[in-house]
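pipeline stage [seq->struct] | target=Hormonally up-regulated neu tumor-associated kinase A | organism=Liparis tanakae | residues=170
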Amino acid sequence: MCKNPLSLSLSLSLSLSLSAAICLLKKLLEPDPNKRPNIHQVMADSWLQLANRNTGAPIHIEEINHTVLLHMTEKMAYKHSEVLSAVLTNRACHTLAVYFLLNKKMKRLSKEYREMQFQEKKKGEKQNNEFYQTQWRKHVDKLTIPPKQTPVYLAVAKGPSKEKKHRTVG
């Protein structure tokens, strides 16, 4: 029986990740404080670095959400330079937390708005199709179709037949 290479790779990756996590926990549970790692050694551990690979990357100026920045400076009285500095340096502070929370909320609301617009458009198209179908039925009802004509050879004569009767002489 042949195993899926993707699942094999995934299980290998998970087992390596778990063993690295267990190794870090064993180091942290060391009873001797001199042998126990300090915070800098823990943060430099390969397992934590693997888990935080995408975090901590600095944000470029082009990636800043200017709507959130404007809202924070105008409505929430943050200094423009303070917000920019916190976001660009990715410095952990309440300003950065507020920026990320507002940015996340804005993305969620934008997504919901786009979905709502899509549903309304879909609903409008459905109503439009129903309108055209209804209009088509109204026009069909107005059409007058002439009754079927009976072919001449099937017509039945109404009245006395025009055949001549032969008289017999007698």
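stage status: PASS
auto-comment: The mean pLDDT is 77. The chain has six helices and no strands.
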